[in-house]
Design brief:
mainly beta; Porin; two-stranded antiparallel ribbon
Length: about 425
């Protein structure tokens, strides 16, 4: 994250590919984000969920031979220890160029995303930052950056995309410091206020060529529909496995094969997406320390239902393979997932006051897991430069070990002030 050599090398490339008359654009923003916990018994270190000041600087240089883009964040964290209050991160720093008229390259630190879902990710297995998502940071921070080479090739058949990431990048999950989580060894929700050993920071796969990630997508426009096929070879982004020797969390190997379709229908936008997760470390489902393979599918629909009012609805079903073996491995009396797990989501957005005010709500609800996560925010664009936001994150669940139930003590509200320049 703090590899200054990396960004300096890209700046050298910027000089190489951009002639002296290249256009240079700079902008950024200054933002304050402050939030508080709503649950008094949350085992985290502070009643505040977040207290930070962020400066983001963006630079883009466009020349005849290529484009360079960088996005760097400088952060003051008022809740961190004194020695760690100041931090910075290279969110993006990439070089983009063409070879001929049909081949595009992007190399460097970048945000990777594809798929059709609204906050449901089946074939988008690139790194996410759920800590930022649950604390109220801007939506752009849900996607964590990765160092990668992306190549896109276009011809009459369609568009081919290839991504090579030389080292694995995991999802950024709650650590117990700001956001508590469920610890299966303790059998309850834990945080670092209880014990510093509850700081959740599992080791990632070694940075070797054999552990690099590879993804591919084929995309084609068929009439009014965009159709895509996907492939990924790497690891689960969450540490879903356990090392049988150390009993520490690990990231199991995984391959993904998927497809999607999205287009205009019924007066709105409809999408279908599915994927097969092949658990390479447990192909037969007989290893209790590794996740079983699964098949996941989703359907979604969105349309404008009134002036300034847009709503969507999504339904996802996830089927675990070799479910009988999974059930036989479970501890009697403890809650475990159904063979087919369902998730329903809906987003409602209303624009008001000449589109200067946006009210948005998003709910995740699983009838099988009996848990939910609700996000709410109201944003007021005072001017082109100044934006004010208030919001909340609310979790609930009947079981402490479900996807959202484990975060049921993390309910929080926040306020955010942004100045763009």
């Amino acid at each position: 994250m703090k590899n200054i050599t990396y960004i300096l090398a890209l700046l050298v490339l910027l000089v190489v590919v951009s002639p002296t008359h290249a256009e240079l654009y700079t902008d950024g923003y200054l933002q304050g984000l402050f939030g508080g916990q709503l649950e008094s018994d949350n085992p985290t270190k502070s009643d505040q969920s977040v207290s930070e000041t962020r400066l983001q600087l963006r630079m883009e240089s466009i020349g005849d031979n290529g484009e360079f883009f960088s996005r760097v964040d400088f952060l003051y964290d008022g809740l961190a220890d004194e020695d760690n209050q100041y931090d910075w991160e290279i969110r993006e720093a990439y070089l983009k160029f063409k070879l001929g008229s049909k081949l595009d390259f992007k190399v460097g630190r970048q945000i990777l995303t594809w798929g059709t879902g609204d906050l449901i990710f089946i074939n988008d297995v690139f790194a996410k930052d759920y800590r930022s998502f649950f604390l109220g940071r801007d939506d752009q921070y849900l996607k964590a950056p990765q160092t990668a080479l992306r190549m896109e090739y276009y011809n009459s058949i369609g568009a081919f995309s290839f991504v090579f990431a030389p080292s694995f990048e995991s999802n950024r999950l709650p650590t117990g410091e700001r956001l508590s989580y469920y610890n299966p060894f303790i059998g309850s929700i834990v945080g670092t206020a209880m014990d510093e050993n509850f700081y959740f920071n599992p080791d990632e796969p070694a940075k070797t060529f054999g552990n690099s990630e590879f993804a591919a997508r084929f995309q084609k426009q068929v009439g009014m529909y965009s159709v895509a096929l996907y492939f990924y070879k790497g690891f689960y982004k969450n540490p879903l496995g356990l090392d049988a020797n150390t009993m520490m969390p690990v990231y199991p190997r995984m391959e993904l094969h998927g497809a999607s379709i999205r287009g205009a229908k019924f007066g709105g936008i409809v999408w279908l997406e599915g994927g097969y997760y092949n658990s390479k470390d447990d192909p037969d489902g007989d290893n209790p320390f590794m996740p079983n393979s699964s098949v996941s599918g989703m359907v979604g629909f969105e349309r404008q239902i009134a002036t300034g009012l847009t709503a969507n609805l999504q339904w996802q079903a996830d089927k675990m393979m070799e479910y009988d073996s999974f059930v036989a491995q479970q501890t009697p009396g403890l809650h475990y997932r159904e063979e087919v797990k369902h998730l329903i989501t809906s987003r409602v957005t209303k624009m008001m006051v000449d589109e200067t005010v946006m009210v948005s709500g998003f709910v995740f609800y699983s009838p099988d897991e009996e848990d939910l996560y609700f996000r709410f925010s109201t944003t007021y664009n005072y001017s082109d430069e100044i934006r004010l936001t208030v919001g909340a994150n609310v979790f609930d669940g009947n079981y402490a070990n479900t996807e959202f139930g484990q975060f049921s003590l993390n309910d929080n509200i926040y306020t955010k002030m942004t100045y763009n320049f």
